[in-house]
């Protein structure tokens, strides 16, 4: 392990911060079944709690993707980047107010993590090519503007289609070993029982239950090192299990609480058939899982990879990826695909491009916000369809782990209808009692001005179903990332879970209920479908601000102005179209 104290992004005068790498040399993971020909250098950023760090819980935060950075500077960290991309401001809803926070960029070649550093050219879509001439900062002959292509240093795996980490099960082995090493080098932040809070989002719905299962298996084997246990698992707009969640996609597209019909009736009916028919999506998922068997799969069987990849492709085309023609965003149906809802969402990319920031963090590679090759590697194995992770969550619940599920109801990617179905399907001893519990409104603390601006109607609303240590919360007027739309909501759900209190009020203690034979349940209607939403006032806007480090949120006209070199760019913002 290698790290340094970091002074940037300070949350208080006393909370320390450390950034560095956990180095896993080639074949470090062979003892856990992974053939790893290249080193894995996992980047971490640890931030102490603002309140009594020696007593505060330790939270491990992973993001999804697969291949998306931890989002410390965008969502839950102590600072956020200003519009100029050069400086930061304090995040009043930082999760390190109540917990020590350990952020990890994974799988390898995500964020600042890398295998073998190599100079490369990177095009505007994020595709990297090995550089024949190794001079950093060298101009690309056919692109003197740097708008089509830039030179940088990345992990060599960023340019390769073949990687050892191509499934969830492979990824969590590196995470488990990294966490074990980190705990041994930072003993002052270990609890007596090595308890860790595990929080994630989106595709992290695969990573969290897989990491839980693998960690419990290692504990049972009595391996050397800290015996890690997870006290809570938080899943925010998480995709966990395709068999349970995929049927919700046509429903969300055709019949949602915003009154939007993003597909027509004939497409809706055809999609339903594509799920149930003999060679449909459901049967293909089942065939994939039958081929996988019950053992964790590490992506090393070509025929299984092809079977599961083809099944995932069929399901994506015919069941899930339905709304492209509507123009609605996959991650926020209340806005158009290329509309940037908040100018602060991606400025952290510009901030992390600065040389002095990289020097302060001690990183030898450039920042990769979304690792394209990681996503492609997982896609080639059909990883999205693997494993019945509901069973993993059920085991965790029955072992006393507190599980929080929270879903913004404008998200389509991992939508709340699928999340609700997921919550009702987790097999555990109190499943019937959870299903019988009603929905109750969640009480939140006062918001700040920025939240009122983001939320459209200025009021945070959410409804929770909870029985004991399992809760499902529908957050109204929120996209795929609750923590960017309603930071106070994300913090409140996190804090109440960590303190072991009810989600609705934070006033009712939940621990030790089973011993007292009185398990808490929310009261109210068994559905929230009657609660309808209004669209944001800018829901029809086709063009917002264009941040050139996040070109997918720029309109075609903005994209052309930028790539042609006509438009004026300052601080990575496109200021004009350059057409007079």
UniProtKB/TrEMBL annotation:
Record flagged with keyword Signal: yes
Keyword Glycoprotein: yes
SUPFAM superfamilies (alphabetical): alpha/beta-Hydrolases (SSF53474)
Gene Ontology molecular function terms on file: serine-type carboxypeptidase activity
A Pfam short name: Peptidase_S10
Family named by the database record: Belongs to the peptidase S10 family.
Protein name stated in the entry: Carboxypeptidase
Organism the protein comes from: Hypocrea virens (strain Gv29-8 / FGSC 10586)
Organism taxonomic ancestry: Eukaryota, Fungi, Dikarya, Ascomycota, Pezizomycotina
